[in-house]
Amino acid sequence: MAIVHEFEYFKPERIEDVIKLLSEYKGKARLLAGGTDLVVRIKDELESPAAVIDIKGIEELKKLEFREGKLHIGALVTFTDLIDSDIVKKQFPLFWESSKTIASPGIRNRATLAGNICSGVPSLDSGPALLVYEADIIVRGAEGERVIPALNWFLGPRRTALKEEEFVREIVFSLPAKNHGGSYIKLGRYKGEDLAQVGLGILALEGNEYRLAFCAVGPVPSRAKKIEALLNGKPLTDSLLETAKRLVSEEISPITDVRATKEYRVHVAKIMLERGIRAAVERIDGNGPAYGERLI
Amino acid sequence: MKKISFILNGEKRNAYVEPNDLLVDVLREKLGMHSIKYACGRGDCGACTILLNGKGVRSCIILAIEADGQEILTVEGLSKDKLTSLQESFIDHGSFQCGFCASGMIMSATELLDKNPNPTEEEVKEGLSGNLCRCTGYTPIIDAVLDAKKRDVDKK
Ligand code: FES
Ligand code: FES
Fold first, then answer.
1. Is the ipTM of this complex over 0.90?
2. Mind telling me how many Å the CA of A170 is from chain B's nearest CA?
């Protein structure tokens, strides 16, 4: 099926030109990076931009750099770039693990982290990693830059804190001060090319500190604050885990859809919580299942 | 219409395209690359996979204009002189039934073997994920990829 909608195409080489085009087209322009979401949406006529601004000509957006404890991920960095990066694997293993669950290599070769968070679907696998590492999203607009904490980014399904004439320049992950282990578990119907029915990212920091975030079980990916409050400061025991599992249904509000029922999602989320926490804690000292190994 | 140029299977090619032309259509209809198949049109099945700058991508969700200045490889370019070991292995393992998925499978497997010449079965499955086959049950395809790496070693 060809694309029916007609649009102008621009491929600027400088960030300033992107800003100029965005304000010229007043919300009628869309940015194109990998296109795995945008092109499909234009085809389906869910979006009909007057202009498409291809940012792949802007060199500085391709950067993936780790300096002074911060990982800078330019808007053009793809999930394949992230998975192939030793720094990501070593320093932000939970993020690496979740990146590997996204779609398939043929999509990850094009799809970018920036695009993923701009489309902002409830099931986005990068959501939990952004929330537990408390990443910052750096956006550019005509008035300069703003820093939006990932915790304030997701406003609703396909709704984010990004304003119409702004765009994401980079995403910054800061290394947690304490030694940590993590896990990302994705429940899909099969491996590869499926959206999550439940996604759970867990960061376990030395000294019994936990950060947990779910995706696909509510309108936006979100932190599980009640479970965190219960777990924080206490040594992990079987009975504590049981209590935590009982809180799951208060933290998430899944729907029944073509992929799974609400009840099934809640049930499996509890199992994922237990396995995820155990793996994350074991991984603090380099034990437990290797990153990337399936936990469900 | 805008003129774009790119390297297609080792040769410089030009095409006139509209911004909303899809790469799959330009490659198939204007440039005759019929190895590329078109099925889902939304990146889900892998039938339209080509290598863009060495990486497997879905040509049904890429604008043709994005290919300006890039390098593209299709099955036509792979087997210019003779079949690759991978293609021979596909034939010997009976890895096609209707064959519709084969080009995409071969391009994805080519990328995989370039990146990782000695993949495990798990890695082959991961490398081919997103390429759907409704006929073979996948086993002969996976066997063919695993066997292709052996053939290359034997040849040396
Ligand atoms: S036709 Fe392109 S992925 Fe299915
Ligand atoms: S051989 Fe028919 S789809 Fe794979």
1. yes
2. 22
